Every structure is written in structure tokens, then in C-alpha cells.
């Protein structure tokens, strides 16, 4: 079509994959920056480089290998993206979310999204895991939405609800498992905000988001989740906190005029 992809484009890629592997995944996992090693844990793997998959976008970022890996994880058939697509790579949003609709056509029912994110919340430290309970899609609020253009009714409605994007049952289950595994102190629920990137936040931007109720910030995930929810996938999301976002790293940025020793690093 004139805007993005036709249903046939997704179908061709899905059909090609179905012809190349016997796996019929129920679960798709998008691995965030540095999290691609999860795919290495799949048993009975069939792996495809994005460059070899007809119609598939290509990865350009470090820490994103650019492979689609099918296999078994704890008895579930999964398909794992080792490397995702970001808007800042120059991809259109429908390109960054192309794989999600392909997963739908493969028969996937549940999408697990993961990402590396910066913390804006006092209680979230580098190394912690944040289960995403909701998101703020800043590019989306500004009109950068993968669902822009004519709606494809075969995937979902023109005006999809986003009020329960992150499946409450799966969130509950994840909290229970964290307790069972003895890692409950490392796992919390919170709100993820997607920004366009590729620059990290200014101090003022980080403070603004913190005041608006955002707990962690990154440059991905929300567009994929919007497309997944639109086509009826069940979504579970986690952020690995890799750093404190700029305003919340040391040294503290509340400067008193009396403190002349720190006047070379002004805060806002
Ligand atoms: O969201 P993922 O893909 O994990 O990557 C995150 O890490 C990168 C910045 O270091 C950005 O791409 C940000 O979005
Ligand atoms: N925007 C943004 N993305 C990130 N990805 C990992 N850390 C960060 C961060 O602090 N800010």
C-alpha cells in the first residue's frame, strides 16, 4: 500500500518462515539491548539472519545481533528476536513493528517484550528488573504511531483500547515467580516511557518524566506493544534497569548558590 505494508507483505514473510521451520511458536520474545543471550537458551533451534528473511527489516545497532531464533524454552515453542528495530535507526514505525504482525500470522498468542532502560524512580537501581504495568508512548502522543494510515481490519480495529495493554494475569504470575525464585527485592512494577532517542534525556526532560509518573525510560517497546494489542496479542513486558537516567545520577543536581565548589556542574 502507499502507507507502510499490505497484509500480503506480512503474510509472505510468515509463509516463508513457516516453510523453513517445523516450530509453531505460541510465544514471541523481543530481546532488548544486551538481552539477546536469552535466545541462546532455546533448544532445537532454527535460526535465521534478518538479512535472509524475505521482507524483514535489518538491525543496525550494537547489542542487537539481527537473528530470529525458533526453539523450545521450558517446553514452550518460542520465537525470539535477537535484536529489535528502533525509530532512531531511521526505520518507519511500521517497519520497527513489522515482526509483531508476522508473529501474529505465525500463530503466536503471547508477546514478551524486554528492554534496557534508565531509571527515574528512587527505588529502581541498575540491575533491577521492572515489570511494565503501563507505558507512556511519547512519540505516539505526538502522532508518530505505527497504526497511522489506513486501518487493516484483518489485524484489529481503527481505534484500539490501550487500557490493559500489559496483561494483569501475566504481571501477577511474574511477581509470584520472582518471590518463589528468591529475587523479589530486585523486581518491581512500574511505568515505562518510550522516547524517540537516540540521545539520552536532558536533566529537565528526566525530571519532567519523573514528575509525570514515569519510572523508567527507553527508546523502544511502546510501538511494538501498540501493534501487538491492536492485533489481540497478550503482552508481558520487562525492563532491565541499566542506569539511572541523567537527573537521578550522582552528583545530586539541586545546587545551592551558596555551594560554590560545585558551580561548574549546574543543575536545572
Ligand atoms: O530498548 P532497547 O532495544 O533494549 O535499547 C535501549 O538501549 C539503547 C540505549 O542504550 C536504546 O536503543 C534503548 O531503547
Ligand atoms: N532514553 C533512554 N534510553 C535508555 N536505554 C537505556 N538507558 C536509557 C536511558 O537512560 N534513557
Automatic annotation (TrEMBL):
Annotated EC: 2.4.2.1
GO MF annotations in UniProt: purine-nucleoside phosphorylase activity
Sequence ranges assigned to domain Nucleoside phosphorylase in this UniProt record: 27-246
Residues the record lists as binding phosphate: 33, 64, 84-86, 116, 220
The UniProt record lists the keyword Nucleotidyltransferase: no
Leading EC class: transferase
Biological or metabolic pathway of the protein: Purine metabolism; purine nucleoside salvage
InterPro entries xrefs: Nucleoside_phosphorylase_d, Nucleoside_phosphorylase_sf, Pur_Nuc_Pase_Ino/Guo-sp, Purine_phosphorylase, Purine_phosphorylase-2_CS
Any single biological process term in GO: purine ribonucleoside salvage
Record-stated family: Belongs to the PNP/MTAP phosphorylase family.
Protein name (record): Purine nucleoside phosphorylase
Organism encoding this protein: Myripristis murdjan (pinecone soldierfish)
